[in-house]
Amino acid sequence: MKRQALFNVGVLLLVLLFILSACGSQKTTVDNDGGTIVIALSREIPTLDPANYRMRECENVIRNIFDGLVTKTHDGKIVPEIAESWEAISDTEWEFKIRKGVTFHNGDPLTADDVVFSFERIIIEGGMEGQTSPRKGLMGPTSGVYKVDDYTVRFTMDEPNPTFLHGVVHQQIIPKAYFEEVGPEGFLKQPIGAGPFKFVSGTLNDQIVLERYDDYYGGSPDIPPVGPPALKRVIFKVIPEPSSAIAALKSGEVNIISGVPADMVPNLEADPNVIVKTVQGTRVYMLEMNNKMPPFDNPKVRQAMNYAIDMDGILEAIYGGNATRLPGALMPYSFGANPNLKPYEYNPEKAKQLLKEAGVTKLQVVIDTEPKRQNVALAMAAMLQEIGIDAQVRNWEWGVLESEIKKGTRQMYMTEWGDSWLDPVGFLNPKFRTNDRANWSHYSNERVDELLTRAERIIDSKIREEIYHEVEEILYEEAPIVFGYTLMEVEASTANVENWQPSMDGRQNMHRVRITN
Amino acid sequence: MPLYSFYLASDESREYRGGFMKGIKILERLLATIPVILGIAVIVFLFMRLTPGDPVDIMMGREGMVTEAEIEALREEFNLNEPLHVQLFIFFKGLFSGDLGNSITRGVPVIQLIKDTLPATIELAIGALLFALVIALPIGIISAVKQDSIFDRIAMAGSFLGISMPGFWLGIVLIIVFSVNLGWLPSQGRLSYLVYLERITGFHVIDAIVTGNIPALLNALKHLLLPSITLGASMAAIIARVMRSSMLEVLKQDYVMLARSKGLSKWLVVLRHCLKNAMMPTITVVGMQVGVLLGGNMIVESVFGWPGLGRLVVDAIFNRDYPLVQGVVMFYAFTFVMANFFVDVIYTYINPKIEM
């Protein structure tokens, strides 16, 4: 009987072994047809409707199925895509010539009607089957879009809009006739665009399978090579856990991962089957102070904080070469950045002096942060302690922290803000105009408000630039925040991925990527 | 004799009355679950709204241009500007007509999202349960029969490890060993992208069997293996320990001694006579653990990119997607209450001494 039990266990193990051996792991293979690439998505995406999302990961997928009038090179230059050319007819009117011979995945030619239809869903209030598109804000004061002839469309706006083209980059064209035929739900089931890959199958929370569109017009002539995609298939696979994504890359289950944590870079670089690539990021990370709460209502105290924190030292220690310190509020390569600003020097004596002048003798602060930036916050707190401030760090979930910050109950907090347009309209306005959407420091300065509102509606880039230089100077002096840093974005691929370049705004367009054995 | 017959009659009628009363009691219990579920609905509704954080703010992200009007329109659309009691009224109105509302971030009916993700979660739970039983029952039995042997000691040490290992860690270790180093098993998702499988029930294994799709079946099974082991490990450990101790208990009983002295072999006694009796506590534990399997799989689903209900609700909580969280939690509550109810009912039938 003892044998019987052992026998049972043995059978069990054999079954397990059989299952194990029956399955080799899935490695991506290359057939003559161009092969398949698998890209890890860090989160589930909500939709494939180009008018109804606000999430960057979503744009990654959508951008491979749908093309826009214009697009950006990986280093941020705006170039034509479906549009052949464009011109500003006046300060409030833009005209686009549409490329001929562009077709949707069902073979229908793309004409002005499709462009008008796509943009009306976005810019008209309630234009998305009764709802308002969450992408409307990207188009600023754009109020109308008209067909001039079959291959010409004209946009009109209520006020001049200097960042109009930036907004157009983020909108994609859908086929009017097909959409009206199948309705919004049918469209979501089988979305059709004019992009390099067509949607084949998949669910948004698991994996999305795209296949090459053989009649693709070739994409932007300014980003060679022009032509149909080299890859046969593109798979987007949802892998929310970063360490799982790295493991999947190492096992060859996925080919490209993004958002690699800085501390994993050495590990990946040591792997001969992995290539790590970095690109200058466009998110700003900063330590904000509550300008309404004493003692931070005193500019001297805020300056003291800027002097007390050795930002260069912290960045070097934590991020090595992968961080860039900002001299002022804007990223140095952003439009309108003031080239004359020098970052606050690290000078604890001066900080103490300023605190003394402000009459601050005893100060207790809590630096609020999300867990992912806790190490930076801890280093900052240690430096504040060195000048005699009782500084501590507290971890939060962002949703909770944001609402506390907005209520004005917190003192100092680490925040981030993305500005992929590299234009102050999307950064200084929400962050430093009185009561604006992301003015978490509760900063208020009439002159700054006036300048920012004016620059939002001026086309002449020379004048805009001067205005922003002045704003940056004021901000530098008044120091509503401890000026922060920006990080390199790290992506990694398996060694067999070619012609792949991470882009500044994080988009992953697979049109020009190749895969070899 | 008359006395005896009186007792008999009374016993019969009591039994009859008892059956009838039992039906009434069951109905009572069933009705009593309704206020429980509604109460949970109210609590979830309030807790979600009392948690700081704004769904529209989070949806718009921390970047770029958004107009005030756009934010207003979105808030309007999801009734976020209405006072709390009006929102609650709207929620309940939908609830009674079977409508849990639309997800804020996904714009799809909540019911649809639950329907889409539930099979994945149940499939994983069943996989974990099977793994746990297949591993734990033999180990528990053998450990008891060979108490204090090397096998027993190793098994119990192993089960201690199983209980103390966090699922997150175990999952990553399994991925590193079986996917990265050995390359035997996939680490992410439910099915490879080139494998075609028609969706009938949403359970990949069942769909593959029904359609006779052997490649898809093998593919689905190998995707299921690592997550099932990860989710089932702690359960296996618990079951093994419970099985062992209840088996030890039973082995000390007189009838076991009798059976052995009759000359029956040890294993025959164990398998034929002891196992059934020793199973009772184990079944109770398994019943309790099933709830854990359904509710506690969020981490495992994240580690293995498993598109199930647990991941859906975690995502929804971070996004403050009120209708989605409400819907999923209501669903969990309903499942738990119903499971409890059925366990109670089954108990009373198995053991009439227990009353409702």
Overall CATH class of the largest domain in chain B: Mainly Alpha
Rg from Cα of chain A: 26 Å
Cα-based radius of gyration of chain B, to the nearest Å: 26 Å
CATH topology of the largest domain in chain B: MetI-like fold
Q: What proportion of the residues of chain A is helical, as a percent range?
A: 25-40%
The count of β-strands of chain A is 19
Question: How would you summarize what this structure contains?
Answer:
Chain A is α+β, with helices and mostly antiparallel strands and 517 residues long. Chain A has helices at residues 2-21, 56-65, 112-123, 164-169, 176-189, 242-250, 265-269, 299-308, 311-319, 348-357, 374-386, 398-407, 428-432, 446-455, 461-478; strands at 36-41, 70-72, 78-80, 83-90, 93-98, 142-149, 152-157, 197-202, 207-212, 233-238, 256-257, 274-289, 323-325, 364-369, 390-395, 412-418, 481-494, 497-498, 514-515. In chain A, helix 8 (299-308) runs antiparallel to helix 10 (348-357), helix 9 runs antiparallel to helix 11 and helix 14 (446-455) packs antiparallel against helix 15.
